[in-house]
């Protein structure tokens, strides 16, 4: 499987550079029979797109998704779904400066070392622009999961020094927060912080948290396709993410087993856990509880302040980046985290369908019929 | 790719249950011409195996690896290498108690939900015993990497409340530490802590850190096969790992871009970075600097203290686990982290070989010849 | 890997329906540094496209390929290459008739059984139209192979009762034959046959043969990725192909070992074979000789003559297909056979690069440099 | 996916050399809940194994399979099934002669070119011995298919000049034929032919035909994972197979569409076809009819007659092969064809389970339950 392909049964292949003509994705493996139209996908892209608040870059991309294949009469047909999002506000000329030098914190240097050639315009393939395709594909995955009662919510747990204490989330406010922070007061503070960063020509990082509700027990494959392993793969594949933790995460490392273990109890014929320190995963398989993880986001590497760097020919120089950039990518990463989570879960849901003989027999007896 | 398979070109398939006859792995894709014998692999397994210190379980497994295929006259042949490690100290009878109830923190419940059947003997496939096969395969990967000057060192950064401050590592001491903690004083303290845990019938977690030296720039594939994405996948696939972070990791989330970015400078015709906050990765591709990450390890779920749980038929009960278990898996996880890192890097090294036309031409001109 | 994805390192994902807006392909894994433009790809599509002779369907598709990503300043960058071919001459209304009944010999029935839904317009995804994307991707693969001196030529060995005897090929004539038959006299006869078929509202099949020159020894992976296994997979994935044979193929089954074996001999320090009954493959690995195989093509299933069939609701009916169809797909399949062969060989060439330690060391010593 | 791995969901990794200690396979992805024991697998191996008739090599391998993992209390658990078959009658010394020269028709030369090293003992990995692992894995696949009413029968259609006419098959006799030829008279003739070949120190090829009964419609994935494409891949991966054809196969190439097309008709509420020229496949997807294909087997390359060849250092020489070899591999290939067919169909059956939303919902509603 090549580098821009993700998933085994619900498989996506994304393509596109920051300042190319378009970006897009081919989804291969979406089950037939899912109701789907561009209108269903668009809201997911709208959440991700820049230009909608002072919190983000001023690049104005409409991000209008087109479905080029795989849907017929309003339903998926089981064949590849090709989604295309034209780039409409490219300004490659703004990147002339980067043509000959390596931006600190960006992939310019490592791409050059790897390939001996790079599209310098806004980072080319390594730009955050490629996440539009992920979000479009993730929308389809989310719609599939919704059919099974599974819903995903990611949000800003921390932005720079601002931290939303556990238990104080106001999820009803979340859709109105321009920084995806579900707390009215802290959201306002965060917005001010971003404006201040922009003025100072600097940037900041943060922490994104993700909750999945309605997940059935049993998703994830031992040994190497554990649910947490695959989610980590998915989330760390997002540019700017430097860490992930599940449930209590790193805090678990200083607890005793007797403090950390989630005990089981039965109540009214159903099995429950007394706590959810493990974040809804046991032995790499979902246990049916709330799935919970957090991801660390580094500060946007593009800053207006002067930075030391070197040219492609190895001379020392100083660079001030003047393009259109986000003072923090955290608010936008939220939708990408949801997308990657949806893609991973959709894939595991399909994989799980073949894990048991009794379940398979049910499918073949009930849904498919041979005819000769 | 199924659940117990990992890697694309340097691919492994592991198998085996805790109390089955043996555990093993098939390595498919190791290049031909690597010197290899069981003696080369054994030291890696010796580091992982239980029964060598008071820090670990008293289960006595010799972990003697056998090479059943793929090696001829002392060299790999390019065909699958089958490694087998017999289980010699199984005591399935000790697990009768677990047959009918779910151990908290273990995969018993989720496996049962997933498959409708489970091998209850010591956790079956979900036991840490499966990591012996990973370590054996990782040894081969490590030997391959060594041919390219790449070396991997993982160690205990923290064990319960004991934390090794950055900069105080004494790597010369590491091989003598029974808890893989490269600091004589803290290592002794850690050993005492483990003995205390055992007495209290409790367990503790910790943090494992991993360093890779000698890595060339260019490993990792954009977008979904980023070096950090694949390493996260690999490390989180180890049982008991609840988080990972690269470079500054979660700490990056509260820094400014101007503080976090690693600036470049040229010196004597070579390009350097002024810091390594990113942990040796830029845009998901190795930058040639020290690769550095940390993993959070949860406390061993098996503890002697009584815990609330439920039986398979849904009745409440209390369980005290009396098997042979590690008071902390941290010391043993160290070798597994190294193994998974080696497997990931070996795979990316092979993948990278086909990334550039100029490099490919060099191979085909120099090494291979057609003959008709 | 999902159904519309092919290849491991040189990986393609095709998409598109016969009467959708466009068809296309994402190539992920093409090495960086290959000179590439739409002009380089277009000639391959021109050979495949309908509407250029009385031998083919009257559907007029310009098949103008667009490169949407992965190429910068005239060279591939190592990132996904997205190719798009608009559909310009769709007439879905012509297929209203097929909406409710199953065309004999087509995938209508099996798609309906599989997915419970189907795009009936010209067969949707099962139409030969999808091969445009294959040919576009195959063009890139061919250009890559050309860099290594490898060239592929497929041609019509037989069309209905017309058979080109071995040894009478006139390859210089091939580019001028509208039926891809490298023999002037037989080509004219074949063209007449096709016109006659059209008049009779019937169709015919044939045999396509493929030769690969300049192939180095060593391509193909034992055991399941044998060169002939992968080529068979590739060629049988083309709609309408019902068989494949390598070298002497089925004729080998009635020979003695002493007649069939290709003996080796050395001459002037090079190793040769006295014959090439095996078609350039030994043990599933190329031996450096001419690679040769033949594929059986069934008659075009769409015919104007009335045929018995059933409606989707299970009533007997009679169907005469009036759309724009090829009297034989053989002439067009030739370019698809070349494309699939190129894709398979490009993939194996990349895979082979990581098969030997000595070769890998050469790459890493010569082409890549670490910098810290 | 590496060279010795096959399948996507029902995935196998085989290993082992002709004269190594053992051969084996890891099956990863077999659904949980399938009744399985070594006794269930053994009969499949017994059919394949040499030494049971004058028709085959005199090498005496017991081929006793051991199950090392993945089965608990008589049922598969969903985790990897490791099967091991010890080699008991190896005589590597008999192959000293081949150490320095290339056997015509074998993989010696191409392996040497590919890897720069080869296990010369009986062909090492390229020996037919590796098919024991395929047959063991195929047995598990067959047992899985049996749960769905699917059965596979392969047989000798032709052996050298002896050809079993269509319609004269006596399948009741098949189990008693030492050459897997379902016709008492022709079977006797075939046995005489093989004895004669042995006397003449020569060998012969043949044709194996395979029938699958009880297959539901809908298996196979468009475009590149077509049922016939995958079966071709599977069958051509068997050493010595030089061609495959489905239904009428190559004969289709000289028919008219009106002759070839299988027409549909409805009878008593069920849909039937008036003929089965396509071999049970429409558009690469099973149509529910009898699946039928034929494979061409080349003559055994190992013959006692003197053959011209070259040494590894490039000198001309003459070689007479004196090892224990089959006068024809056809009788033994029959069981390998069945195994590869079973593996392919089992994989597609699992893949198909996730193709439709309605079917998936059925699984998740009926079989799996979340618990929190």
TrEMBL record, chains A, B, C, D:
<keyword id="KW-0456">Lyase</keyword>
<comment type="subunit">
    <text>Homotetramer.</text>
</comment>
<comment type="similarity">
    <text>Belongs to the chorismate synthase family.</text>
</comment>
<dbReference type="GO" id="GO:0009423">
    <property type="term" value="P:chorismate biosynthetic process"/>
</dbReference>
<protein>
    <recommendedName>
        <fullName>Chorismate synthase</fullName>
        <ecNumber>4.2.3.5</ecNumber>
    </recommendedName>
</protein>
<dbReference type="GO" id="GO:0009073">
    <property type="term" value="P:aromatic amino acid family biosynthetic process"/>
</dbReference>
<dbReference type="GO" id="GO:0008652">
    <property type="term" value="P:amino acid biosynthetic process"/>
</dbReference>
<keyword id="KW-0521">NADP</keyword>
<dbReference type="InterPro" id="IPR035904">
    <property type="entry name" value="Chorismate_synth_AroC_sf"/>
</dbReference>
<keyword id="KW-0285">Flavoprotein</keyword>
<comment type="function">
    <text>This reaction introduces a second double bond into the aromatic ring system.</text>
</comment>
<feature type="binding site">
    <location>
        <position position="48"/>
    </location>
    <ligand>
        <name>NADP(+)</name>
    </ligand>
</feature>
<dbReference type="GO" id="GO:0005829">
    <property type="term" value="C:cytosol"/>
</dbReference>
<keyword id="KW-0274">FAD</keyword>
<comment type="pathway">
    <text>Metabolic intermediate biosynthesis; chorismate biosynthesis; chorismate from D-erythrose 4-phosphate and phosphoenolpyruvate: step 7/7.</text>
</comment>
<feature type="binding site">
    <location>
        <position position="283"/>
    </location>
    <ligand>
        <name>FMN</name>
    </ligand>
</feature>
<dbReference type="InterPro" id="IPR020541">
    <property type="entry name" value="Chorismate_synthase_CS"/>
</dbReference>
<keyword id="KW-0288">FMN</keyword>
<feature type="binding site">
    <location>
        <position position="324"/>
    </location>
    <ligand>
        <name>FMN</name>
    </ligand>
</feature>
<feature type="binding site">
    <location>
        <begin position="125"/>
        <end position="127"/>
    </location>
    <ligand>
        <name>FMN</name>
    </ligand>
</feature>
<dbReference type="GO" id="GO:0010181">
    <property type="term" value="F:FMN binding"/>
</dbReference>
<dbReference type="GO" id="GO:0004107">
    <property type="term" value="F:chorismate synthase activity"/>
</dbReference>
<dbReference type="InterPro" id="IPR000453">
    <property type="entry name" value="Chorismate_synth"/>
</dbReference>
<keyword id="KW-0057">Aromatic amino acid biosynthesis</keyword>
<dbReference type="Pfam" id="PF01264">
    <property type="entry name" value="Chorismate_synt"/>
</dbReference>
<feature type="binding site">
    <location>
        <begin position="298"/>
        <end position="302"/>
    </location>
    <ligand>
        <name>FMN</name>
    </ligand>
</feature>
<keyword id="KW-0028">Amino-acid biosynthesis</keyword>
